[in-house]
Amino acid sequence: MRIKTISFIIVFVPFSFVFAQKVDTLVHINGNVMTGELKKLQYGILLWKMDGMGSIDVEIPKISTLKSKKRFDIRLQNGSRYYCSFDTSAQKQMVYLVLATGNMLVRVDDIAQIFPLKRSFWLRTSGNFGFGGNYSKGSDLLTLNFSTALNHRREIAYYDFSWDTYYTFQGDSLSSIKSDARLGWEHLRKSKLSYGANLGFGQNSELGTKMRIDLTIVGIYDIIFNSWTRFSALAGISMEQEYPYSDTSPAEYITGNFALGWKVYKLTKPKVWLEANIQYLPYYSSKNRYRLNVNLNPKVGLVGNNFKIGFRTYFSYDSQPVTVDANKEDWGANLEINYSFH
Question: Is the full-model pTM beyond 0.85?
Fold first, then answer.
């Protein structure tokens, strides 16, 4: 009898755990009811996992209501953030947020983001990898670019790492390199305003920068944040150390950091992603010097929402390069294939 009881516990507990994970309910706008597991909602797409079918993408306009007893980090378009679960509403495209103080009825399309609170380290992590290039036979010029972005989300904090490198070859020799890497932290507040810090590394042989290291403290304000777009403004201050290609010693600077960023996702086919930003850095410790960076990365979906193809473009300007006689501007555009996960 004792052996049978132990065997029952060993077998029963894992299976009850598995089935408990897929008891969420989604009511489609056409009236169909789907049971499964709500994974997340971001940029207008709800990731829904079903037994037998795997994970599917459900666009916000197709959701009538939701139900889940699990707790989520939920952000509305007005910037409000709640840590709660969901309950269904009889009204179409409405859902209840189950709060400790009672239920609050909200429109489904007012929800900008949903992230589960209790997930493994791996499931809290998302990112993308990209590879691209272009070649000109007449000039025997080859440009390759590699990009990576990794994000890890906690209840009140957001960590990210990004790396972007361009190699330009003239014949068999490397003629220029542009590389940027950044590790950042952002404190998530229950409003449109957040703050954070990041550590960056940069190199641009065209602008005469052998290496740049900076530590930046920033404040971020979401001007628009909804299910299909995020338009934000950033302001901060940086401490920089720059190394020229010449034999002169590295220089240290204090700079401002002002930027606008825009991310947009188009729901209808063809599915389109667009990321753009413009950054202005005035040098407070160097008279009349400033830098300007512009990035524009449009993509279109190839397979689902994971594989994309598009262009990665940039423009960089330095009014007073740290290396004498270096160019003041640099730009590039490459065709890129991109894969994203989670």
Answer: no
**CA dihedral sign, ordered 212, 213, 217, 222:** positive
Same domain? For 210 and 105 the reply is no
Say how far apart CA 46 and CA 111 lie, in whole Å. 11
Q: How far is CA 226 from CA 77, 101, 262, 272, 325, in A?
A: 5, 25, 12, 16, 46
Across 188-250, where does the E strand assignment appear? 193-204, 209-225, 229-244
Two tokens, residue 91? 């009204």
Domain boundary (82, 116, 150) is at: 116
d(CA 193, CA 219): 7
Which residue range(s) make up the domain with 188? 125-341
* Residues 146, 149, 153: CA angle, nearest 5 degrees: 170
- In the chain (342 residues long), the average pLDDT of successive 10-residue segments reads 40 39 85 91 86 82 93 89 93 94 94 84 87 86 94 88 94 91 91 93 95 97 87 96 90 96 80 93 93 95 84 95 92 93 78
